[in-house]
From TrEMBL:
Residues 75-193 form the AtPDCT1/2 transmembrane domain. GO terms for molecular function: diacylglycerol cholinephosphotransferase activity. Keywords: Membrane, Transmembrane, Transmembrane helix. PANTHER family: PHOSPHATIDYLCHOLINE:DIACYLGLYCEROL CHOLINEPHOSPHOTRANSFERASE 1-RELATED. The chain crosses the membrane at residues 41-61, 98-119, 126-144, 164-182. InterPro entries: AtPDCT1_2_TM_dom (IPR056361), PDCT1/2-like (IPR055311). This is AtPDCT1/2 transmembrane domain-containing protein.
């Protein structure tokens, strides 16, 4: 706490009083930081430090990756990670349809909860968030239309039915379930939120 106050007090000092004939660089804020100040930031504010480290990591990744050629399929780590599940569902169409049906029921349950929170409990937050999310999803899905993978396993039991207006990114099912789960946590409905 003492270290945080020290840094915030350093910020409060007017910059104009620090300017003199020796130049602005010697009086810059970062020049007054000690090793103790830096370690305090790392200790008390780890999340921004993680973001800063990840910035450099992903800059290195971005500049070392080559673009996927136009003759190759898009690279998607999710498809690679779920390849064994895909093979299983491809070999058992009935299981694929059953799981697609469960997915639709799950979607229906979360939408009922979100509408219930608004109409019955009078709490519009989850409903407004869901409307905003699906509006953004519709705009992004229309603006970025990706090719349907050749090995896509569709099912008549999945919602939306068929491959009509199917947006590969991002999942409305996941978005609505996160909104419902966060609302349940806010209301301390811990078992439902899980």
């Amino acid at each position: 706490m003492k270290d945080d106050n020290r840094i915030s007090n350093m910020k409060k000092r007017p910059i104009s009083s620090d300017l003199d004939d020796s130049g602005w660089l010697s009086n810059a804020f970062f020049m007054r930081l000690t090793a103790r100040d830096v370690f305090s930031v790392v200790k008390y504010h780890p999340i921004p430090c993680i973001f800063a480290a990840s910035l450099f990591f992903f800059m290195a990744v971005e500049y070392t990756l080559h673009m996927v050629s136009s003759s190759s399929p898009p690279f998607d780590l999710g498809f690679i990670a779920t390849r064994p599940i895909h093979r299983l569902l491809d070999s058992k169409p009935a299981l694929n349809t059953l799981l697609a049906g469960f997915n639709t029921v799950f979607m229906g349950m979360q939408m009922v909860y979100i509408v219930w929170a608004f109409l019955i409990e009078g709490r519009p937050r989850a409903t407004i968030t869901t409307l905003f999310m699906f509006t953004c999803r519709g705009i992004l899905g229309y603006a970025t239309q990706l090719q349907l993978p050749e090995d896509f396993l569709g099912s008549g039991a999945d919602f939306p039915v068929g491959n009509v207006s199917f947006f590969l990114f991002y999942s409305g099912h996941v978005g609505a379930s996160v909104i419902a789960s966060l609302d349940m946590k806010r209301m301390q409905r811990w078992k439902l939120s899980v």
